[in-house]
Design a protein that fits this description.
Elements lengths: L16 E15 L4 E2 L3 E2 L3 E19 L6 E6 L2 E2 L4 H11 L9 E9 L10 H19 L6 H15 L11 E4 L13 E3 L12 E5 L10 H6 L7 H21 L2 H20 L10 H17 L4 E4 L5 E5 L4 H12 L8 E5 L5 E8 L5
Parallel strand pairs: 5-7
Antiparallel strand pairs: 1-4, 1-14, 2-3, 4-7, 4-8, 5-6, 8-9, 10-12, 10-13, 11-12
The chain binds (3R)-3-hydroxy-3-methyl-5-(phosphonooxy)pentanoic acid.
The site of (3R)-3-hydroxy-3-methyl-5-(phosphonooxy)pentanoic acid has 14 residues, from helix 4.
């Protein structure tokens, strides 16, 4: 499919005023996306686990307006948050051609995260995907030629990608691929797809506990980090390596080869941070506690035979991934040993999930006075 497949077939008329609500989860990349080109197109394939409890709930209230141009107000956890509005307006600008009705309405976006705002967990993936799904749901309801469910989810992923690359991987689950790969049929740079392989039962309900090492905002944004890949001396090798890692990961996921899974996932996490440490300018997002946790994971595996492993996002927090059969052991180990490395002892227990959903279908509202 190309971009043109997502252009609307006919003009859409929504009611004067209405609302709907969507919920979308966060996701954690196993093979990392780091480096982009053009309109948020990835330089390599990434593969992620969709999470379940870490999600954003978004209510979208729309009202017809006369003036041309995009118009939005953003409310986060009940408070107007003007700081977020430029980002949403930029998003509307990028997606305008694919959902032109957006220009004729004023949108009030009420959004709430299940995870604490100051937890260092990025809400862009869950937030952008929830909003993208809400817009596609409007188009599906009022458009003259509704898309099949599969294509509608793809369109939501396509729009979400234009807001934040990793958001394209939050629409479905439990494993999502974004970025074209010769060995993954249906994979595309334009949108994420559910990984087409057969997931081995050992990965069912796989656990992800997020250890909050640093609850503050990132010191270097993801966009600044992606930009540094343009002149990175190791960029070409990194992009090639990611393609190989994606292929190896497929085999591990299918065969239930947790040892190989661990090797791929930990190498990916450390490679992401090594790339940051060797960018120009170089920077470091890990903290001493991040390293202490990594060492503790290796020691715990050596001593107990556990199959817990770690991965990292673009920050200091650590995601611990483990089979569901180890949930209790890993949780009590976190409580007893690892929680001291967490800011205010904070961690979030999550597991694999199935992606974004419409939680309240569209309904019309009386016109505001
Ligand atoms: O979606 P962005 O632009 O915030 O980039 C996210 C990149 C990583 O989280 C570091 C890796 C990934 O694939 O999610």
């Amino acid at each position: 499919m190309t971009e043109t497949a997502f252009l609307p077939q006919a003009p859409i008329e929504l009611p004067e005023r209405g609302q709907l609500a969507c919920q979308s989860p966060s996701n954690i990349a196993l093979v990392k996306y780091w480096g982009k080109h053009g309109d948020q197109l990835p330089c390599n394939t990434s593969i992620s686990f969709t999470l379940s409890h870490c999600h954003t709930q978004t209510r979208l209230i729309f009202e017809k307006k006369k003036e041309a141009g995009f118009s939005v107000e953003v409310w986060l956890a009940g408070e107007r948050t003007p700081d977020f509005e430029p980002k949403i307006l930029q998003f509307f600008n990028r997606i305008g051609a694919y959902v032109p009705f957006v220009e004729s309405y004023h949108f009030r976006v009420e959004t709430e995260n299940s995870f604490p705002h100051s937890s260092g967990i990025a809400s862009s993936a869950s937030g952008m995907s929830a909003l993208a799904l809400a817009l596609v749901a409007l188009e599906q309801k009022y458009g003259l030629a509704p898309l099949s469910e599969e294509v509608a989810t793809r369109k939501a992923s396509f729009l979400a990608r234009l807001g934040s690359g990793s958001a394209s991987r939050s629409l479905s689950g439990p494993v999502v691929v974004w970025g074209e790969h010769a060995q993954i049929s249906g994979s595309s740079d334009l949108y994420g797809i559910p990984w087409p392989g057969k997931l081995h039962p050992v990965f069912e309900n796989y656990g992800d506990t997020i250890l909050i090492v640093d609850a503050g905002p990132k010191t270097v944004s993801s966009s600044a980090g992606h930009d540094l890949m343009h002149n990175h001396p190791f960029a070409a090798q990194r992009f090639e390596q990611a393609q190989q890692q994606a292929d190896r990961l497929q085999t591990a996921l299918e065969q239930g080869d947790v040892a190989r899974f661990i090797e791929i996932v930990e190498l990916e996490a450390l490679t992401l941070h090594a790339i940051m440490m060797t960018s120009q300018p170089y920077y470091l997002l890990m903290r001493p506690a991040t390293l202490q946790i990594i060492q503790a994971v290796w020691q715990f595996r050596r001593e107990t035979g556990s199959r817990v492993c770690f991965t990292l996002d673009a920050g200091a927090n650590v995601h611990l991934l483990y089979p569901s059969s180890e949930r209790e052991t890993v949780t009590s180990w976190i409580q007893q040993v690892l929680s001291v490395y967490c800011e205010n002892g904070q961690y979030i227990t999550d597991q694999l999930g199935s992606g974004a959903v419409i939680t309240e279908p569209v309904r019309e509202l009386p016109i505001a006075q």
